[in-house]
Specification:
Blueprint (H helix, E strand, L loop, with lengths): L1 H9 L1 H35 L10 E4 L9 H6 L3 E3 L1 H34 L10 H15 L1
Antiparallel strand pairs: 1-2
Length: about 140
Amino acid sequence: MFKEFRDFAIKGNMVDLAIGVIIGAAFGGIVSSLVDDVFMPLIGLLIGGVDFSNLFIVLSNPDNLPLPSLAAAQDAGIATLNIGLFINAVVKFTIVAFVLFMVVKGINAMKREAAAEPVAETPAPSREEVLLTEIRDALRAR
């Protein structure tokens, strides 16, 4: 059983998958930082100083507590609809989806190029091979 598992884990596809997962996690961290720290502050600045990380709607505030930020609302246990966090998630998804689209498009283009390459034709049989084939066929016919 251990030998089978070792053979399975060592196969090239499994190693490739593990590397892909690790790179994907690192890419996700980069995209999160890009969206949270670069894109959303710039977009917020362009549309009038909106801080998307604190954009929320209070669903229930029975004690009428002042809620200057989303963190304050969550600490107070107030139910909120976190629109800003949702917008951040949509932007992150869009970036990742676009990058994956470009990767798949590039792979498909390489596959089309490989398919378009002319297949090497097998050379015509030599005179000796033709003669030997005729001799073989004549012997079979007897």
